[in-house]
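forwarding from the other thread:

> can someone predict this with iron/sulfur cluster?

sure thing
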Amino acid sequence: MVVVYPMTEMDEQSGPPITLIDPIDMSKLDTKFREQIKSMPNGEELSACFACSTCTAACPIANIWQYKPHQLIRMIILGMKEEVLSSNEIWLCLTCFQCQERCPQKVRVTDIFFDCKNLAAEEGKVPPNIIGLGKELLEKGQLYTVTADWEREDLGLEPAVPGLSVDSMKNTLKKTRTNKLVEGGE
Amino acid sequence: MSASNPVLIIGAGVAGMTAAVELADSGIKAVLVERQETVGGNALDLYKAFPTDDCFYCFEGNRWRPGIRKCFYRSALIDQPNISLKMNSEVNTISGTPGQFTVTLSVGPQYIDPKKCTMCGLCLEKSKAFHLISPQCQPQAVVYNPSINDDGAKQAEEECPTKAISLNAQPTEEIIKVSDIIIATGYHEMKPVNMDEYSYGKHPNIITQLELAKIIDPNGESNGVPLKPSDGKPVKRVMMVQCVGSRDENYYPYCSKICCVFALKHANILMQERDGVQVSVVYMDIRTYDRYERYYHTARESGVEFIRGRVSLIQPREDGSLDIVVYDSLLNKYLKFSVDLFVLSSALEPPEGTNKLIESLGLKSASGFVGIADPKTENEVIVGDHIYACGTALGPAEVPESVTQARAAVSKILQSRK
Ligand SMILES: Cc1cc2nc3c(=O)[nH]c(=O)nc-3n(C[C@H](O)[C@H](O)[C@H](O)COP(=O)(O)OP(=O)(O)OC[C@H]3O[C@@H](n4cnc5c(N)ncnc54)[C@H](O)[C@@H]3O)c2cc1C
Ligand code: SF4
Ligand code: SF4
Ligand code: SF4
Ligand code: SF4
């Protein structure tokens, strides 16, 4: 039995007018994003997340983030690809693995943020300071140059790090995607 | 007090039926009074049942009975000589003293004798006055609507191969003496017509979970394919809202306890067994207590979308779909969805007449349900002197709990008769 009710009563709507709320239109989001992350290394557990926010509680740095770790996971599940991949947070993550260690649903939060970084890099969405670091790595073969200073001397260490070969490192790096990123390829 | 006095059971849902069968099997006469035309109560059209995902009439505990399990209640309710089943009937008055109650019953007219009807279908073709409530209805018999008293009905009465029809049946009043009373009057799913924010009753595609259960039941009209009530077209997007009228001081302050579980049961059926249906669940807390956490886990695995927050507004579209804005409290953002079916997990409330029953028997009330006599004793099925309650008459519960309570009530009666 199909009961048809008059719909006219619905015309006078209750609640705040939609223009004031300006909601995110779900039909404009990328529903495949969730599957994409799940297919990446250690992303399988993604949908087990039940938004408990343990990851955010564990994170030593999220207090200054606009999107907290549990919100980023939630945004991935909802399909907010654009926002996640252009967020600063995925690059600010310290990869300390605190969140991942504590997650009660075994969601590999840190690894998933890593996957996000890879996806963002593929789309060329890498913040300039990260590119800067890459450049430094390519040019110097190392990120932090060890200088012969009094501290080493006090500790009885040789002035230079023994066996450090920055040249072979530079050569290897030239063939990696880091090089392409820095040169603005990809 | 005569030990041979029967026991009155009010309500023939899962709890009342269990109590009747268990008493009868122990040699005690049971008068089972049901106001509807079929027994089974709210569990009649529920398709798969948690926790086993088995059919609703085939619970593990009944397997020892001979015959196919689906026939269990039929054989018991109709053929067990110790059970006297009164359909379309109500309890009028209860007087006397505990252990010796005098009960007057209004027994509805028995147009169809369930012991004779074979559900051959002949009468259904003769007249619209006959119909089958559900293939799962118990007793397994057609029902007759006397307001359509046409020639076809008379013809059917003559031609019924088993002479099961008697169109002139009359209602009767019966007075019985019983030693004990078991209240198994169950629950009612609240119709949230007064909650303006959900527009229930104002749009055909806004329904409750019990209504959804009927839609997705493979025995139902569309063989379980979810179709929009507005135009009969397939449903692609479903949104459910939890805690409608429960945990709400304006309606019912308690948690209805099982709505999270059955909502997720439905969500899983839709996502896993029906083609291309996407389900979203708007919730405040998900309370899949105990072993039911499994349903929550499965739901997330199968891609059910969970939004912690509340519905902001609903806008119907010309094509029958609904635009729904939800506030997501985890993201602190508003999300806009377009859905075909909007399903309310509405509170489970005491059924009509519970107040009267509580008052006339001098029982306690627990948020409107029957309250236990002495909470300190932990005898949760004892609600008065020689008066017991079981199942959802005591408050929202799942079937296994209702059945366990029914058995507990029976066991108390058996002990008292030793
Ligand atoms: C959508 C939904 C899905 C569910 N799914 C599941 C599930 O998968 N698994 C599970 O275990 N549980 C499930 N449940 C819960 C299940 O419905 C109940 O646990 C069960 O039906 C309770 O049985 P009962 O006998 O206590 O009450 P009811 O089924 O309510 O039966 C009460 C009976 O008493 C009759 N009655 C009431 N008052 C009177 C009166 N004054 N005189 C005469 N007769 C009266 C009624 O007509 C009714 O037949 C679900 C519930 C809902 C709403
Ligand atoms: S701790 Fe795990 S389950 Fe909890 S919100 Fe973070 S990712 Fe989700
Ligand atoms: S790994 Fe990143 S997100 Fe996780 S706790 Fe550490 S800093 Fe926070
Ligand atoms: S004709 Fe008789 S036996 Fe057949 S369904 Fe009708 S009442 Fe039952
Ligand atoms: S069981 Fe779930 S939906 Fe039902 S009242 Fe409790 S929390 Fe709300």
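The pocket of iron/sulfur cluster (ligand 5) is lined by residues B 242-243, 246-247, 255-257, 259-260, 285, 287, 345 (CB under 6 Å). thats all i got for now
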